[in-house]
């Protein structure tokens, strides 16, 4: 069996999905996702210029050797652009392998450990009242776990994860007004004074059963994060995400010494080499890598197995820009992983997105049910894809009030 060709598509409804289709001489094809938020053209160029020419003629069943060939062969290893490009190839090869076996992908990992996988949704509000409404809205839809982000009084601009529209499904990660980022202003003192009481109010209103998650998006210094984690212990968070900048892994030791709040980290990690110390030293509780940015199924499955040895559970990244292909790959891992924790989920199933990526993965009552179709269980409609092209967009950048650049 041989790979005969591969194509990359960039675009989608309100998102720049980077979709790879690998064709074989037996008519079977595989699909993969290389979407790297707001840098989408770069994994596409890496695929087109270097990787696809080296795929032609290879046996697609040798997914391990192909992964090693690209990773070790690059010499300059890792990085989100390369790992997203490898991730797309790897996903597509597993799709082909499972289609060949005529099995849903999770069967190749060891079958199902659960029927439904717990999801968490994003609740957001420009103030606490709006956030409480947004949480109620998600609970009414059946969610048992909700990430909560709200505007901070007196903060000059909106904070991370805060949407200023009533639409609970609004995609607020990318600003499509152009390639140059807007500036948001961050004030740590206001955040630290306001957010603990807001979280306590949320717990009081919704009771003990709701799983509450909160994302600091790397904005606190280690001592501040330790103070914050201590001050919110009574809330009983399901997790506190990215409390400190991800590069400083020792910061989490200080936090651990002062608090037992569960810590989730890893959405910006792209290899096992950024996860292994935190996992082995048991400084985190949830690992947040995404199958796309972290080198695909082959590599992420290694991270999941390492995590399992140290009681670290999965909480894969599922931000608005992951394509349904990445979400499907994660759904198969979630169905299998003995150390599954939770899956981030933002409603993607607009009619336009469904038309582009038809699938029967199902979300019901805040749970995801994996497809039983052979392979990843997602199709890609190329006619639909021809309606879309790349739209320039950006994340904001963050500054302190005196102009100092801060962490987005
Ligand atoms: O592109 C950036 C997003 O992926 C990120 O801001 C989303 O923090 C995020 C989350 O937890 O989903
Ligand atoms: Mg996050």
Question: Summary?
Answer:
Helix content is 37%, strand content 17%. The longest helix has 22 residues. The model has no long low-confidence stretch (mean pLDDT 95).
What does the model show?
This protein is α/β, with parallel strands linked by helices. The chain folds into two domains: 3-103, Enolase-like, N-terminal domain (Enolase-like, domain 1), CATH 3.30.390.10; 109-376, TIM Barrel (Alpha-Beta Barrel). It is 37% helix and 17% strand. It contains 13 helices and 16 strands. The strands form three sheets. Strands 4, 5, 7, 8, 9, 10, 11, 12, 13 and 14 form a ten-stranded mixed sheet that branches. Strands 1-2-3 form a three-stranded antiparallel sheet. Strand 7, helix 7 (222-231) and strand 8 (239-241) form a beta-alpha-beta unit. Helix 1 (41-55) crosses helix 3 (80-101). The chain is globular. The N and C termini lie far apart (45 Å). 2-keto-3-deoxygluconate is lined by residues 37, 173, 215, 217, 267, 317, 319, 344, 395.
Text of the CATH class of the largest domain: Alpha Beta
Distance between the termini: 45 Å
Helix tally equals 13
Look at the structure and name the CATH superfamily of the largest domain.
Enolase-like C-terminal domain
Can you tell me the overall shape?
A: globular
Radius of gyration, whole Å? 21 Å
Known CATH architecture of the largest domain: Alpha-Beta Barrel
Structurally, the number of domains stands at 2
What's the helical proportion of residues? 25-40%
Small-molecule binders here are:
2-keto-3-deoxygluconate, magnesium ion
Question: What's the average pLDDT?
Answer: 95
Structural class: alpha/beta
What is the beta-strand fraction? 15-25%
Low-confidence sequence ranges: none
User: Total number of β-strand segments?
Assistant: 16
Order of helices and strands: EEEHHHHEHEEHEHEHEHEHEHEHEEHEE
As for the CATH topology of the largest domain, it is TIM Barrel
> What does the largest sheet look like?
10 strands, mixed
């Amino acid at each position: 069996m041989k790979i005969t060709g591969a194509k990359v598509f960039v675009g989608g409804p309100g998102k720049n999905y980077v979709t790879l289709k690998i064709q074989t001489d037996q008519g079977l094809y595989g699909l993969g996702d290389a979407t790297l938020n707001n840098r989408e053209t770069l994994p596409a160029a890496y695929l087109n210029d270097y990787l696809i020419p080296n795929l032609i003629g290879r046996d697609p069943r040798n997914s391990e050797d192909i992964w090693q060939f690209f990773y070790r062969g690059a010499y300059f290893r890792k990085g989100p652009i390369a790992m997203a490009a490898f991730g797309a190839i790897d996903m597509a090869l597993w799709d082909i392998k499972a289609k060949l076996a005529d099995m849903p992908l999770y069967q190749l990992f060891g079958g199902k450990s659960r029927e439904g996988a717990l999801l968490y949704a994003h609740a957001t509000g420009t103030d606490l009242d709006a956030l409480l409404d947004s949480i109620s809205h998600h609970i009414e839809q059946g969610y048992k776990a909700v990430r909560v982000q709200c505007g901070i009084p007196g903060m000059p601009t909106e904070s991370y994860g805060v949407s200023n529209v009533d639409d609970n499904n609004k995609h607020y990660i990318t600003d499509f007004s152009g390639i140059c980022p807007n500036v948001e202003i961050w004030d740590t003192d206001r955040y630290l004074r306001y957010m603990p009481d807001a979280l306590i109010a949320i717990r009081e209103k919704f009771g003990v059963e709701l799983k509450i998650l909160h994302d600091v998006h790397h904005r606190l210094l280690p001592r501040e994060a330790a103070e914050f984690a201590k001050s919110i212990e009574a809330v009983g968070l399901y997790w506190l995400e990215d409390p400190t900048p991800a590069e400083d892994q020792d910061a989490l030791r200080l936090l651990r010494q002062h608090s037992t709040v569960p810590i989730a980290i890893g959405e910006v990690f792209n290899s096992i080499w950024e996860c292994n110390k935190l996992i082995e030293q048991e400084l985190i509780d949830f690992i947040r890598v995404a199958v796309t940015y972290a080198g695909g199924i082959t590599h992420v499955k290694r991270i999941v197995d390492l995590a399992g040895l140290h009681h670290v559970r999965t909480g894969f990244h599922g931000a608005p820009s992951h394509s349904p292909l990445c979400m499907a790959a994660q759904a198969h891992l979630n169905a299998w992983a003995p150390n599954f924790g939770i899956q981030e989920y933002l409603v993607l199933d607009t009619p336009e997105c469904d038309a582009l990526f038809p699938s029967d993965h199902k979300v019901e009552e805040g749970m995801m049910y994996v497809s039983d179709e052979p392979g990843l269980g997602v199709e890609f409609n190329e006619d639909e894809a021809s309606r879309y092209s790349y739209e320039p967009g950006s994340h904001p950048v963050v500054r302190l009030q005196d102009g100092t650049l801060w962490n987005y």
